[in-house]
């Protein structure tokens, strides 16, 4: 497990499936995600069963927060599309428990995920895509050190309109500078 001050990242377990189904069927949660269709428990179980076929470093991590002496599952994150020859990966995250939004958990999780990517997996670059309509996520990524590097104009369609997708990244040397600051 990967521990932070208020959060930990752990392997996803079958017992997490009901939370994922609940969160990924909530339009508020999926507003910032590439998912836009409802999912069933059976679909999520098939997704979980397929995790073992993925490279270990590309398997998603469950996000837990400390609640007294216990840990409570609140979302997931991960690194994917890892390119070993380029030492790069894409990052993804969502906090499914809406009562925890705007409390800094997303930033803390992203910082832990970056530490894992740069210090454990020896990556040089971590990038992500974020919808321009998701200012909360953009602000969180900026706090974690991500730099805006591009825009996919009208890259996604939601509720009858086209919107831009922002491209952001952070390099190992930028991460190192933040860690020393």
In short:
With 181 residues, this protein is of the alpha+beta class. The protein is 31% helix and 36% strand.
Secondary structure topology:
Elements: E1 2-3, E2 7-11, H1 17-24, H2 27-30, H3 41-50, E3 61-67, E4 70-83, E5 88-95, H4 105-120, E6 125-131, H5 135-143, E7 147-158, E8 161-171, H6 172-180
Parallel strand pairs: 5-6
Antiparallel strand pairs: 1-2, 2-3, 3-4, 4-5, 6-8, 7-8
Q: Could you explain how this protein is built, in words?
A:
The structure is a single chain. With 181 residues, the protein is of the alpha+beta class. The chain has a single domain, classed as Gcn5-related N-acetyltransferase (GNAT) (Aminopeptidase). The protein is built from 6 helices and 8 strands. The chain has helices spanning 17-24, 27-30, 41-50, 105-120, 135-143, 172-180; strands at 2-3, 7-11, 61-67, 70-83, 88-95, 125-131, 147-158, 161-171. A hairpin with a 3-residue loop joins strand 1 and strand 2. The radius of gyration is 16 Å and the shape is globular. The two termini are 26 Å apart. The model has no long low-confidence stretch (mean pLDDT 94).
How many DSSP H or I helices? 6
Structural class: alpha+beta
What is the assigned CATH homologous superfamily? Gcn5-related N-acetyltransferase (GNAT)
- State the end-to-end distance: 26 Å
CATH topology: Aminopeptidase
List the keywords.
181 residues, Aminopeptidase, 6 helices, 36% strand
